[in-house]
Amino acid sequence: MGLRVAGRMAGERLAGAASGSALGPVSGSAPAVTQTAAPAAAPATRRRSSVMRGLGGFVRPFSRVGGIVFLEVAGVFFLLFVLVFGGMAWRLRDGVTQGPHHQEFLVAAALALVFLYLCVSSFWRARQRSRTGIER
Asked: In the prediction, which pLDDT does 2 show?
């Protein structure tokens, strides 16, 4: 164990000396002080980053599929609003040109069109994401 620690310290000193000599000594300046990391912290940090990389590789396909499923569920949710506002506009279609429900028809038709656009675009984005493998 002591040999490993001594080897690590020697490697850090050589790396510090190489980086200090690459800059070149400045005349009249104080000698460069090298900072060494704590020997116990470096393996824990490496272990933590390798675990996070492993988890990231494991979770990445699920997050991609989860994003696609989210877009499809949002599309169905918007479709429900299309059905509600479309049905309302259908019931009020008789008074489209004249009558007391003209504004209600226009509002219901406009909302049905907005939610139809959101529904179609959500399914379109889900299809594009599943075909090309785009992650957003």
From this structure: 67
